[in-house]
Design goal:
Length: about 100
């Protein structure tokens, strides 16, 4: 009885899928960037982001608390970043998070 090898077919199939997905993403990106509205130029929840959680606080000298919270998130396997400066407003933080796709 002859053995059938499937590994070669899988490699070809995966590379063809990756090629076509890349072409599709390129076409969709070009079409999206031509739109005028900011909300139409985004992949929404599917957009890549810098981290999963952004830790911020709005009181003076709370950097240590933010570092402790980030440490707990990192140990749990959650990607987190923190606000390094104390002089930012809530609106500034929200705008930065939206710009970097931190939802």
């Amino acid at each position: 009885m002859q053995q059938v090898r499937h590994a070669d077919l899988t490699v070809v199939s995966c590379s063809r899928i990756a090629y076509h997905v890349g072409r599709y993403e390129s076409a969709v990106s070009k079409r999206m960037m031509s739109k005028e509205a900011e909300t139409e130029r985004s992949f929404g929840y599917w957009s890549p982001s810098r981290c999963d959680v952004y830790v911020a606080s709005f009181g003076p000298r709370q950097l240590e608390s933010r570092l402790d919270i980030c440490g707990e998130l990192w140990r749990a396997g959650i990607s987190a970043d923190l606000q390094y400066d104390d002089d930012r407003t809530l609106e500034d933080v929200v705008l930065d998070c939206q710009a970097q796709n931190i939802l």
